[in-house]
Amino acid sequence: MIFDSHCHLLLIEEKGKELFNVIEKSLSNNVNHLLDVSVGLDDFFKRLSKIEKIREKSEISIFTSSGIPPFFADKRKKDDLDTLYRQARDNKLVVAIGEIGLDYYYNYGSHELQIKLLKEQIDVANSLDLPIIIHTRDSDKDLIDTLRSNPPKMGGVIHCFSSDYAMAKVLFNLGFYISFSGNLTYKKSYNIQEAAKKAPIDRVLIETDSPYLAPQKYRGRVNEPAFIVETARYLAELKGIAFEDICNKTFENTNRLFRIH
Ligand SMILES: [Zn+2]
C-alpha cells in the first residue's frame, strides 16, 4: 500500500492524461491512496465530483483538501475564508486545509499579504480541527515565525520539502511532517537528500505533486501518482530501509496526520 500524499488530478488531466488510465496505472503499482490537493477554491466542486466518480468505479481511496495558495494573496475575494470554511466543513472527503503557505520566489502580493492569508487559514484549520498542507518557497524564516505565532493545532506537513536538515529539525520540533517529492531523486538535490537520510522515519511522507516534478527516471514528462514508486525506492536506498517498509511507514504516517481510518 502506497499513499501519494499530494497530487493534482485535474491538472494531470489538463496536461492530456486520461484520468481513468492514470488511476489504473496507480493501482497496478500499489498506489491505492491519493490526496488530491486544492490549488484554489473555484474548482472545488469540479474536483469533488471527479473524485466521487473515480471512487465509484475503482478500488482507489482518494481524499481531498481545500485551501487558498499564496498566489491569491493579492487577488482575494470578499468571502474567501467563508467559502473555505464551508467547503472544508461540509465535505467528508476533505482531510486538510491546503495547499497554503508562502512563496517569495514569485512575490505574489507583498510578504505581509501572504502571511496574513496564511494566518487566517490556520485559524480556519484550527476551528475545524484539520491539519494543514504547507507550500513554501524562499520563505523559510517567515514560515517558521508564522507557525510559531499561529500554531496549527492538528499539525501539518511541508509538502515537496526542498530545504535542508536544519530546517527539517525546526519543523520536527514544531510537530510537523515533511513530504518528499520527485525532486528528492535529482542529482543536485544534496540538501534534500541529506534531510531525507537523517529525518526520523515516523515524520516522513511521500508525494508526487503530479503533474509536476516527475522523478529523475521520468524527468520532463507529465508526472502521475504511479511514478511515486521511484521516489519511494530512492528514499529506501538513502535510508537503508527496505522498500516495503518505506511504503508502509509513509502510509501509516499519512493516515495518522490526516486522521484517515
Ligand atoms: Zn502541489
Just give the CATH class: Alpha Beta
Q: What's the main sheet like?
A: 8 strands, parallel
Give the terminus-to-terminus CA distance. Answer: 14 Å
CATH architectural arrangement: Alpha-Beta Barrel
Summarize the topology:
Layout: E1 2-7, H1 9-14, H2 19-28, E2 31-36, H3 44-57, E3 61-66, H4 80-90, E4 94-103, H5 111-127, E5 132-137, H6 140-149, E6 156-158, H7 165-173, E7 177-180, H8 190-198, E8 204-206, H9 228-239, H10 243-258
Parallel strand pairs: 1-2, 2-3, 3-4, 4-5, 5-6, 6-7, 7-8
Helix pairs in contact: 9-10
Could you describe the 3D structure shown?
Strand 7 (177-180), helix 8 (190-198) and strand 8 form a beta-alpha-beta unit. The chain has 10 helices and 8 strands. The chain has a single domain, classed as TIM Barrel (Alpha-Beta Barrel), CATH 3.20.20. Helix 9 (228-239) packs across helix 10. The chain is α/β, with parallel strands linked by helices and 261 residues long. It binds zinc ion. Zinc ion binds at residues 6, 8, 37, 99, 209.
